[in-house]
């Protein structure tokens, strides 16, 4: 099989990427997916008159990626893989929406993002699934929600209180992020701020993927001290959001003590990020070639103290949470996603690990300090709200251990090196493990060494359909609980 085998963050010349016939690409993709590889990215790229399909598959067990491309035929169509590989469904819909390339035989070819429906165009091209029957009723929620939740429409088809189908329509604030990367490619600082804004709750995760991609394309070696600071920031981000999720889940089942305690602990974590770089969400910390903020003796002492406090109090609060009969009665067997379904959908992150799929980019495709400080991808098998909550708890403790290891062995030296020019006509795949799961950025340069394509995949792209399936045959009142247990991103999806 003529595919290019690469590692995470290995920049490769475009000329080295095999160009297959479209039918051959589709056939090869299906063969590899059905024999255990996982779809990471599938997208189209227009370079002059050349319109091509690119695909990246992951071999998680052996820690390598395979890459191939195909020129789009004049018919501008290819055979849809979705009927036999459901993980392809959104990728194919996005390709059709953005480039008009038809995935022939796609079972549900709808817009990915509201109001930009490619060939058909406009909002009216989106048709919701409809159930018929005297006792069937539909419940529409959103796109405008209470509080500060971003816009998304949820349409439930129910009989009584039982949900038979949930359809989720997103894309209400499509921002054109990927195009902005190309439009502003000569403005490095603007691109850095843009990366920080891909998903506001995943600043370190997405910005890390971006700067890693630039460093790989330029051959820049990041100082070891900077790599440690980056890892500390990424794990603090994971700790803070997971604590916030445990707070939200507690609130959804009226366990108010947990709601308050976990929220207070989250604040302790975000305030530590504030002490490091002046921003609670990590903005302004990461830089191409390293980091902007040094860890002083006082900041290191604060981090150590906070880690000890968070570890002690999180264990105590979680012991009470997961021993509560009233909490367990709501968490257990609610919103379950089986391992088979999770694998077919290509789920990632804590949600995948809760369904028995132990994938984690830090372990499977290690980068930075993770090559020297191994991470164990903890998983459970039940795939329910309980599992998604408990995996978060375990990951909090793992992250605190990682932070402690980094501050206790913090290398001396510089915190930043200048980034040189990007290699022309190259491509790099940059994988990081954000708190939601695998973040995938792909950067392609032109013959002048300028970015000509920047493709982003937030883990939410993989997991929204899983949420829709998790609530089938559940009571509609359990939807908020299921939703919180996934905690997916609207803006990370509405790129």
CATH secondary-structure class of the largest domain: Mainly Alpha
Helix count from the secondary structure assignment: 15
Number of structural units classed as domains: 2
Fourth CATH level, the homologous superfamily of the largest domain: Cytochrome-c3 Hydrogenase, chain B
Proportion of residues in extended strands:
15-25%
Rg from alpha-carbon coordinates:
22 Å
Mean pLDDT, as a whole number?
A: 94
Low-confidence stretches: 116-123
Question: What is the architecture of the largest domain at the second tier of CATH?
Answer: Orthogonal Bundle
Number of strands: 16
From the spread of the alpha carbons, the general shape counts as: globular
Largest sheet: 5 strands, mixed
Note the gap between the termini.
33 Å
In CATH, the topology of the largest domain is named Cytochrome-c3 Hydrogenase, chain B
Structural class: alpha+beta
Helix content, binned percent: 40-55%
């Amino acid at each position: 099989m003529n595919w290019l085998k690469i590692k995470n963050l290995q920049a490769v010349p475009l000329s080295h990427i095999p160009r297959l016939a479209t039918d051959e690409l589709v056939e090869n993709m299906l063969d590899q997916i059905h024999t255990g590889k996982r779809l990471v990215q599938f997208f189209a790229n227009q370079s002059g008159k050349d319109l091509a399909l690119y695909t990246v598959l992951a071999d998680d067990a052996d820690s390598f990626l395979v890459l191939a491309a195909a020129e789009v035929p004049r018919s501008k169509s290819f055979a849809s893989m979705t009927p036999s590989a459901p993980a392809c469904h959104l990728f194919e819909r996005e390709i059709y929406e953005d480039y008009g390339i038809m995935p022939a035989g796609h079972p549900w070819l709808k817009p990915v993002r509201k109001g930009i429906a490619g060939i058909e165009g406009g909002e009216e091209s989106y048709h919701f699934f409809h159930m018929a029957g005297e006792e069937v009723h539909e419940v529409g929620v959103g796109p405008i929600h209470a509080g500060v939740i971003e816009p998304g429409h949820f349409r439930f088809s129910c009989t009584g209180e039982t949900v038979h189908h949930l359809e989720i329509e997103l894309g209400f604030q499509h921002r054109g992020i990927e195009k902005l990367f190309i439009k502003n490619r000569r403005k490095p600082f603007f691109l850095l701020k843009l990366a920080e804004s891909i998903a506001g709750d995943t600043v370190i995760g997405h910005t890390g993927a971006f700067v890693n991609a630039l460093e790989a394309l330029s051959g820049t070696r990041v100082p070891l001290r900077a790599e440690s600071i980056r890892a500390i920031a990424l794990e603090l981000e994971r700790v803070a959001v997971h604590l916030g999720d445990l707070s939200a889940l507690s609130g959804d089942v009226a366990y108010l003590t947990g709601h308050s305690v976990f929220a207070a602990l989250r604040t302790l974590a975000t305030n530590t990020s504030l002490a490091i770089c002046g921003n609670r969400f990590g903005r302004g910390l990461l830089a191409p070639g390293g980091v902007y903020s040094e860890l002083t003796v006082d900041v290191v002492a604060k981090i150590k103290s906070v880690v000890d406090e968070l570890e002690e109090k999180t264990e105590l609060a979680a012991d009470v949470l997961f021993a509560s009969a009233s909490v367990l009665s709501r968490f257990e067997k609610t919103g379950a996603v089986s391992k088979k379904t999770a694998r077919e959908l290509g789920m990632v992150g804590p949600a995948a690990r809760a369904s028995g799929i132990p994938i984690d980019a830090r372990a499977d495709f290690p980068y930075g300090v993770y090559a020297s400080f191994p991470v164990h991808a903890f998983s459970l098998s039940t795939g329910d709200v309980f599992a998604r909550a408990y995996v978060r708890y375990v990951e909090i403790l793992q992250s605190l251990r990682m932070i402690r290891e980094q501050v206790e062995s913090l290398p001396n030296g510089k915190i930043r090196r200048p980034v040189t020019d990007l290699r022309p006509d190259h491509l790099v795949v940059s994988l990081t493990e954000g708190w939601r799961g695998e973040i995938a950025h792909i950067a392609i340069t032109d013959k002048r060494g300028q970015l000509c394509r920047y493709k982003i995949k937030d883990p939410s792209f993989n997991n929204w359909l899983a949420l829709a399936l998790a609530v089938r045959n559940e009571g509609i009142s359990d939807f908020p609980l299921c939703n919180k247990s996934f905690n997916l991103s609207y803006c990370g999806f509405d790129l």
